[in-house]
Design goal:
about 180 residues; mainly beta; Protocatechuate 3,4-Dioxygenase, subunit A; four-stranded antiparallel β-sheet
Length: about 180
């Protein structure tokens, strides 16, 4: 029996991406000994984003993107359940929504520390590289505000914040683990 590439891709989307890889080490991500580096919040953060696992806007011409991974504690390298990750980024024209919550939403980790966000791939804009903002916090810990960058567009950002997207197509995937 021959399995087509299309069947394989569709099957991969049927299984949570984090279930396919047992740990952050297999993906070449940072170790639990290193906390995810902070990066600037920028001027466009807006508190109060709704719990929303999909930020996809149907009218967007941008590629679809799935960002997923795990959230670990630095102490003990344990997956953290119930952690909220607040994501926001520019729309396909490079502008941020100040009136509502387009391209703004919160996802929560499951019992195994997994998170998953569906969105549209943001563009570079006004001299800024393509990026996605994230704010999160472990219970009782400090707030982590950071950004995820894309290869060749990071402009001096910490290398551990550069994601490695899967191949171009109707939906691109990015795996990124946070250590708090």
């Amino acid at each position: 029996m021959t399995i087509s590439r299309r069947t394989l891709v569709l099957a991969a989307f049927a299984v949570p991406s984090t279930a396919l890889v047992p740990s952050f080490l297999a993906r070449g991500q940072q170790s639990c000994g290193l906390v995810t580096p902070a990066d600037m919040e920028g001027p466009f953060y807006k508190a109060g984003a709704p719990l929303k696992p999909s930020l996809i806007e149907p009218d967007s011409k941008a590629e679809k993107l799935i960002v997923s991974g795990l959230v670990f504690s630095m102490s003990g390298c344990r997956p953290l359940a119930g952690i909220r990750l607040d994501f926001w980024h520019a729309d396909d024209k490079g502008t941020y929504d100040h009136a509502g919550f387009r391209y703004r939403g919160v996802v929560e980790t499951d019992a195994q520390g997994r998170y998953r966000l569906e969105t549209n791939l943001p563009p570079p804009y006004m001299g800024r590289p393509r990026h996605i903002h994230v704010k999160t916090q472990a219970r009782g810990g400090p707030v982590l505000t950071t950004q995820l960058y894309f290869p060749g567009e990071s402009r001096g950002a910490d290398k551990s914040l550069i994601v490695r997207p899967g191949p171009a197509g109707p939906v691109r995937t990015v795996l990124f683990d946070f250590v708090l």
